Amino acid sequence: MTGIDIPKILKLAPSPAYVVDLGRLRHNLAILDLVQKRSGAKILMALKAFAMWSVFPIIRETLQGVCASSPWEARLGREEFGREVHSFAAAFSERDVVELLEISNHLVFNSFGQLERFRPLWEKSGVSVGLRVNPEHSEGHTAIYDPCAPNSRLGIPRRAFDGRSLAGIEGLHFHTLCEQLFEPLERTARVFEERFGEFLPGMKWLNLGGGHHITREGYDIDGLVELVRYFREKYDLEVYLEPGEAIAIGTGVLVSEVLDVVDNGMEIAILDVSATCHMPDILEMPYRPGITGGFDPGEKAHTYRLGGPSCLAGDVIGDWSFEQPLRPGDRLAFEDMAHYTMVKTTTFNGIRHPAICTFEPETGELRVVRTFGYEDFRSRLS
């Protein structure tokens, strides 16, 4: 990974462990800060992607707050981040709404039904209320992550606005992207304005959602700045962006160790990390992470199937080749493992949760922030 001292991290870190490089984190935040200053946008951190609260003190120096998808995420943002909290879910219980109104700055509803059902609760709360809309313009490549896929449960289509009162509504929100550059946002924004632009003059804010890979090489920063300025100036709106991955792209590795090598038609290396427990996107998307020093099968002399230690037959991370044979005790670094990893892990089979660490490149210090033990596993059960 660019700019990360993988050999040093492999030497210093326990295994398994998630390690976040603070230098790369600051690099990403500098890009996001530039976008804020040039465009006037307010950028929030999506906790669904990255919620390592021990580094919130660094992040809150730049970003304006967090976006949350549940009362627990919102509470984490309120208590540990301490700036704006914007909350949205596909549906809320009454208990959720009561709790969220106490800790949120913005509360976004996913239907007119929920908006009106809970109007007596939110109308005098002082919280800014919005609606999530569905532009019905799909830019997604994987259906499970496409909020605009046919029959989506996310966002209100334009036809549902006919005959509806927008009394008390201060903002609109759309979130349609996933790991994408600027051009899909530009196309989506054009469709959004065509379908929902008539409502914008009466709004105070517009939230362009997440899925923006702003810190990825090749992202059109100038285009994003121009788009945000367009909506701010034309409609006199506050504009929010809520990326999650953009904060954490390229910042983290998952350190693992080879436990055993077996041959069952091909050589299989069993690791102390698991696809199902620690990298679930491998099984959900599907997704193939990078490995430092790992290559496509057959590209180098020694090809292995990498698998986890769980009893799930499908706990397979994938096939890679290496220049040297793998042996028990060898360390591997899975790349770009900060986002959508720690937030999605499980303790299936009672498999040990990776430690959570930071690495400070300026001093070469690796700090173990958190380790997990049997009591963490036990406390999830009853």
Helices and strands, with pairings:
Elements: H1 6-12, E1 17-21, H2 22-39, E2 42-46, H3 56-59, E3 65-68, H4 71-81, E4 84-88, H5 94-103, E5 106-109, H6 112-117, H7 119-122, E6 128-132, E7 169-173, H8 182-196, E8 205-207, H9 221-235, E9 238-241, H10 245-248, E10 252-263, E11 267-271, H11 275-278, H12 281-284, E12 302-307, E13 316-322, E14 331-335, E15 355-360, E16 365-370, H13 374-378
Parallel strand pairs: 1-15, 2-3, 2-9, 3-4, 4-5, 5-6, 6-7, 7-8, 8-9, 11-12
Antiparallel strand pairs: 1-10, 10-11, 10-14, 12-13, 15-16
How many domains? The number is 2
The biggest sheet, with number of strands, parallel, antiparallel or mixed sense and barrel status, is:
8 strands, mixed
- Find the count of extended strands (DSSP E, 2+ residues): 16
Distance between the termini: 41 Å
User: What is the C-alpha radius of gyration, as a whole number of Å?
Assistant: 22 Å
CATH class of the largest domain: Alpha Beta
What is the strand content?
15-25%
- Estimate the helix proportion, in percent: 25-40%
Mean pLDDT: 96
Q: How many helices in DSSP terms? A: 13
Question: What is the ordering of alpha helices and beta strands?
Answer: HEHEHEHEHEHHEEHEHEHEEHHEEEEEH
Could you state the CATH homologous superfamily of the largest domain?
Alanine racemase
Unreliable segments of 5+ consecutive residues: none
